[in-house]
Amino acid sequence: MAWILVLTIIFIYLFFVLFLGSWAGRGRESSVVEYIAASRGLGFIVMYFLMGGAIFSAFAYLGGPGWAYSKGAAAFYIVGYCALGLVPWWLWGPRALRAGKKFQYVTQAQLFSDRFQSKALSVIIAVVSILAFIQYITLQMKGCAYVFEIASEGRIRFEYGALIAYVVVLIYVFFGGVRGVAWTHVFQGVFMVVTAWVLGLYLAYNLYGGPSEMFRQIAQANPTHLLVGPGAKMSFAAFASALLVSVLGFSMWPHLFMKAYTAKSERVLKQTIVFYPTFAIFLVPVLFIGFAGIMQVKPDELGAADRILPWMFSHMQFPPVAVGLILAAALAAAMSTQDTITHAAGSIFAQDFVEVLKKEKHSDREARMWVRISVVCFGAVSYMVAIFGGQTLVALLLGAYGSIVQLLPLAAATFFWPRATKTGAICGILAGVLYNYAIVLKIIPTFWDIHAGIQGLVLNFIVLIAVSLLTNPMDREHVQKFATL
Amino acid sequence: MSDQQEKVGYGITVFRPGTPASAKMRGIVFFIIFCIIILVQSFYWLFANSAKPFVLGMPFGMFFIVLFIMIEFAALIILYFLESKNIEEKGDV
Which of A58, A70, A108, B68 is spaced 20 to 30 A from A306 at the CA atom? Predict the structure, then answer.
């Protein structure tokens, strides 16, 4: 009957998050700027957790230990890119914030399409973003479903587990908007970090007498597991290019980039960037969980590497309360990414796709309704992909994931290079995205072992610069508005 | 970028108009520092692709990555305090 207690704890957590998220949006003005950008008024603590919750995803919480268990030192790249991910934001975050206030932007594509005077660019960015989001959110849904499956000892099936978590997310995103997402992240962030540290250190000390002894035994049993390069699970080129593409692309993710519009001031934005590396330090004990499993269970016995975290605590004879708290933390990791992406995807589809293609502008009330409808529709589509997604679709979506970094040249050109033109921007992003897809779909071979996103990015920059220089410059007064922000 | 292009307003614009020379120099120095930190972490295997010695309970490679995260954190704090006088509190534009 222990599973009833475990499920009770998980449902208490879900009710609390539902209440907090829905409550956060109460009494606020009913406008698109409030729903998408919290009326540009979030303070440091909320901004810090809002951004941090996005990286503490199912990938970090379930996939991170899985990587440490199966790929060893390759998992260090997760810690590295999480720490560095927001550093490039120092360059364009404050500029995006000023642009948002000055020109009333609430999404990333609004900024780029206004700079390049192109509705087509807005639609391209919306499509690329939403394809990438679906792939990302499918991972989170699978993580949630997995948690329910384990908690109920197989009584709650995959499709129902994914549905329960997603309905909770949908409700508070629908009613609370970005403010609801932000306040749930504060609670979820603290909860996840505390659980990760307690569990990671407990396992290392309980099973091995400490982390040093744990790593000594791993190095002795498998000398290449704590290395990268020849004989290890990740090549030198793959490690370096994966970290670089992640760092360059991280702040380009639309759901993170558009958070620049939610900050109360430039000071708050920069404080968030300064303290962001601390989230990477919080991830270190999460990897300890995976490393602790290496000497405990063989890969054949475990099945998928992502199962290492639940396997570890299910074999540690933990009391049901502890199991419930650990599973609730894993659920928090998945939901804290799911909610922010659901909110961003709904906002982007409504603002950058529907609003752009419509001849007459929506009223604020209509626009807000469209965002909410988009949130629900995006949720439904993602759920269907998670349940019924086939291999071709998965490959397409993986390509979209690598495409996000192709937005980087647009940001650089918007803020730093007034000579960049509309044609150059469109040709550049299309070249980068298509080249990236061509590698992912194996139409062309990959160059050495370098990440497809990096290869596409180099081509993207070359095309943007060459085509811009070959075409007439845009109106000087217009482009200078962005270069002098 | 040629001087002529600069004059017509299409040259590369890294700093906002009116930025003091000292702030420009500071920006360039910190840009280089962060580029080095990013490159060192990406190519950490050139310097620390080893399990031993174990430092603070971590294999040397992992410790090296964490060390550079701490250096990055310290650099960000220093940059923040150096720039704090110029940061617009209200973000008015």
Answer: B68
B41 touches chain A (CB under 8 A): yes
Residue B14, chain A, CB below 8 Å: the answer is yes
In a domain, B73, yes or no: yes
pLDDT tens profile A18-28:
888 888 877 77
Residue B55, beta-bridge partner list: B58
Which pLDDT tens digit goes with each residue over A111-134? 999 999 999 999 999 988 888 888
User: CA A7 to CA A150: how far, in whole Å?
Assistant: 10
Which pTM does this prediction carry?
Answer: 0.87
B18 in contact with chain A, both atoms CB, cutoff 8 A: no
> Which position has the token pair 């009913």?
A30
Cβ–Cβ of A227/B61 closer than 8 Å? yes
**Which amino acid would we find at residue A41?**
G
| Mean pLDDT along residues A378-403 | 70
Question: Is B49 close to A416, i.e. CB distance below 8 A?
Answer: no
Distances A384 to A136, A166, A332, A478 between C-alpha atoms, Å: 14, 12, 22, 43
Q: What is the rounded (10 degree) CA torsion for A429, A37, A330, A161? A: -90
CATH number at residue A218: 1.20.1730.10
Domain residues for the domain of A321 are 2-389
The complex's ipTM works out to 0.88
* Spatial separation of the C-alpha atoms in residues A94 and A104, rounded to whole Å: 15
Q: Which residues of B touch A235 (CB under 8 A)?
A: none
Range of the domain at B79: 42-86
Closest C-alpha among B3, B53, B5, B69 to residue A77: B69
A389 C-beta neighbours (distance < 10 Å), count = 17
Min distance A477 CA to chain B CA atoms (Å): 9
Please tell me if residue B72 touches chain A, with a CB cutoff of 8 Å. yes
Taking an 8 Å cut-off on Cβ atoms, the answer to whether B58 and A284 are in contact is yes
Please state the domain count of chain A: 2
Residues A337, A418, single domain; the answer is no
Of A389, A423, A448, which marks where a domain is finished?
Answer: A389
Residues 6+ apart with CB under 8 A from A128: A400, A403, A404, A406, A407, A429, A433
